[in-house]
Structure formats: structure tokens, C-alpha cells
Backbone:
């Protein structure tokens, strides 16, 4: 029985919706403050402009983590945070699917809406390495804790159908990035990443899928400098 509980986190997250709303709000509030204090985009300080906005992203994960520790049983039990071997396998499959689907949709959308340039520095330095590391490791943790951890668990508690949860969380995931030109591809990627959570019942799998999805843009970012 204990092993079964470890594999399948509980779905009675009464605090999940509150954690999601507070994490979401803290993220945007911090983003507005940080944008106001960003240095001018020149010289060696351009790396600060690249990395500093990521600080706001931390709130996406910190708020659900705090709620889980104070009002739940911790992220391991509440969300299935630590990936198992099955999580890794399912996550890799869903992550590769997300990359392929995202690329196809992005190419189609690019014919109508020109893609925006990525804010990267002109050479590989510590700032850029930190940016890519957070893209591949940090963002999958923080965003999955919020969207497919707290929000997904809360919707399950209110007995929302699983496929509806998959679609709703994918929409939230897409709008979270505030990039209209990538909205369609982000939604499709959100569905693919969320499928890992749906199949396993754990965010350990969706974190692996998310990290796999972000690995390609991370490599492209480093290669383009």
C-alpha cells in the first residue's frame, strides 16, 4: 500500500487552487518589478537582462512548494516530484513528441506571424550558461510544480475529467509564456507534456518531458552565439 501511495500522489489538494493563484500572481508581480529595474541593453550588462527575469519564474515553484510543505505532505508525496524509471521513460517519449509537434506548428505559424528574436548575448559567458541551465532544469521544475502539480491536483479534487484537466493546464501553460506568436505551439506542447502527467499521475514524468522539450532551444541558444 505504501508503495502504491508513493507511485500515485493523492488528489485531495484542497489548497492547490490557492497555491496556483498566489504563485501565478507572485510571478507576474515580480515580473513587473524586475522589468522596471532592468539595465539598458548594452555592453557586459546584457547578460543581466537575460537572467534577471528568470527570478520571477522561481515564484511559480516556490509557492506550491511552500503550500505542500506547510499544508500537505511535501512535494514527493503530494506531486510525485522525484522521477521514477517509468517517469523517465514516459517523460522522454512525451518530451520528444512535444519537440516534434512544436516544431511543426511553429513552422506553420511562422508563415503568418514572423517569430520574435530571442534575447541572447553575443557570446557564450556565465550569464548565458546560467540562462540555458535554468531553461532546461529550473523552468521544468517551477512550471510543473505550479501547473501540473498544484493546479492539476486541485482540479482533480473537484472531480474535473482528466482530459479536461489536460486541456485546461495546457492552455494555462501556453498563456504563461506571454508570446502570442507561439501560443498554438505552446498549447500543443503543453498537451504533450501534460500527457506524461496523465499517464503516470506524477509530475516527475512531466518534468522530464518538459526538460526534454526545452533541451533543443537550449542547444540552439548556445550554438547561435
Residues:
Amino acid at each position: 500500500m505504501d508503495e502504491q501511495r508513493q507511485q500515485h500522489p493523492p488528489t485531495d489538494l484542497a489548497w492547490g487552487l490557492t497555491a496556483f493563484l498566489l504563485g501565478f500572481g507572485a510571478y507576474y508581480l515580480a515580473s513587473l518589478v524586475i522589468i522596471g529595474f532592468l539595465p539598458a541593453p548594452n555592453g557586459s550588462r546584457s547578460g543581466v537582462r537575460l537572467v534577471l527575469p528568470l527570478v520571477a519564474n522561481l515564484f511559480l515553484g516556490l509557492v506550491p512548494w511552500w503550500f505542500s510543505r506547510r499544508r500537505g505532505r511535501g512535494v514527493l508525496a503530494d506531486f510525485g516530484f522525484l522521477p521514477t524509471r517509468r517517469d523517465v521513460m514516459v517523460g522522454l517519449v512525451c518530451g520528444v513528441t512535444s519537440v516534434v509537434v512544436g516544431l511543426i506548428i511553429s513552422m506553420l505559424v511562422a508563415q503568418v506571424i514572423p517569430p520574435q528574436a530571442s534575447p541572447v548575448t553575443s557570446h557564450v559567458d556565465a550569464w548565458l550558461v546560467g540562462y540555458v541551465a535554468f531553461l532546461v532544469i529550473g523552468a521544468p521544475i517551477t512550471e510543473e510544480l505550479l501547473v501540473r502539480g498544484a493546479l492539476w491536483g486541485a482540479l482533480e479534487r473537484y472531480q474535473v475529467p482528466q482530459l479536461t484537466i489536460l486541456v485546461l493546464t495546457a492552455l494555462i501553460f501556453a498563456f504563461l509564456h506571454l508570446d502570442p506568436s507561439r501560443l498554438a505551439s505552446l498549447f500543443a506542447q503543453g498537451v504533450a507534456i501534460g500527457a506524461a502527467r496523465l499517464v503516470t499521475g506524477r509530475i516527475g514524468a512531466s518534468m522530464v518531458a518538459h526538460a526534454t522539450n526545452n533541451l533543443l532551444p537550449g542547444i540552439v541558444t548556445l550554438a547561435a552565439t
In short: Confidence is low (pLDDT under 50) at residues 1-6. The two ends are 52 Å apart (CA to CA).
